[in-house]
Design brief:
Keywords: Homeobox. By secondary structure, the chain is an all-alpha fold. It contains 1 helix and no strands.
Length: 23
């Protein structure tokens, strides 16, 4: 799951959830 989700992918998912990694 970790290697499947890249840093960029994580940010996209975070946006989909309405949460930013910069929080």
């Amino acid at each position: 799951y970790n290697r499947y989700l890249t840093r960029r992918r994580r940010i996209e998912i975070a946006h989909m959830l309405g949460l930013t990694e910069r929080q």
